[in-house]
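Hello again, I could really use a second opinion on something today. I've dropped the whole record in just underneath, so have a look.
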Amino acid sequence: MNTKSYVLNIKIIFIILYTLLGVKSYAENIFSQSSFTAFNGIPSAFISLGAYHPTFAMVVEKNFHRLSVFKLLPDGNYTVVRTYLAITGKEQGDKKQRGDNRTPEGIYFIVGQKDGSELVRQWGPAARKYGPRAFILDYPNIFDKRQRKTGSGIWIHGVDSDARMLRPFDTEGCVALKNEDVIDIAQYVSEFQTPVVIVDEMQTISMDAIQKERQRVFKMVEDWRKSWENSDFKKYLSFYSDNFQSLGKNKDGWREFKSKLSETRKGSITVQISEPKILAFRNQLLVEFFQKYSSPDKDDFGRKFLYLRQEKEGFKIIAEKWYNSQKNQTDLAVLNDTKKRHD
């Protein structure tokens, strides 16, 4: 072996050792509780988490490799109750299309879950990489679809081995936790109620600023409710974007649809809503609440989701979603408590 080859081989060995030591150092760091810090402050995404107590919400920060669980306190503030190590997509950036190995960024809800046996039935031996449980996120949501993003099957799941957690960017787009953590986190999950905001890094906001924004959005939603209840369609439609689409209808179709319903029901309707969840991400707002609609020939109760986007004249509704629910005493109590505060 000549001197040149010898030096080259030494350099290669040095690089390999440096890489291995780097991985070891990273492993020691991420598994050290003292070095794994919790989020500090009020997340700018949580304008309101409604009136449920306790209510939980989650934030995934890709750059910090952590999933934080927040609890709503009676005074409207938030506290971190759990911080979990989390790994995300192999590729950096927001998900755009199927197979790009990126973790999507935005406002999502947990809409279902699968235990280990269900995963095995569906995926066979390949299910090992998902660990003992998976929580299903509603990607692509309406905001994603409007941006023509594709793909599906974005979950929060476990791993085949905790050693996988040594690689901070290692999934095909999902969020992965240690197996003990994906089991522990189940206590904070309520399907269609638990929001998960995924970002590179969550910004903080002051309590004064969040209170002002909360009141502004509360007023907008209450004005929307009153205009609907009063069949004031000019004002009602002023809350909607010209790019609105829902139930296969654009804004003009929505106007005609609502006008006909009002005529059929002779304008005699009442609309009650609970204090809404309000979640913010970039130029988007997602508003969710219980809604009770009553008229002479129809009585509905369920969850309403309003999807709003910032436009020149402020936030406008680009879409709605409705889920019928069975009435229960807890949900009705929240609805009635909100009504008392507004009366």
The radius of gyration is 24 Å. The longest strand covers residues 298-311. The helical segments are 3-30, 116-123, 142-146, 179-184, 207-229, 233-237, 251-264, 329-342.
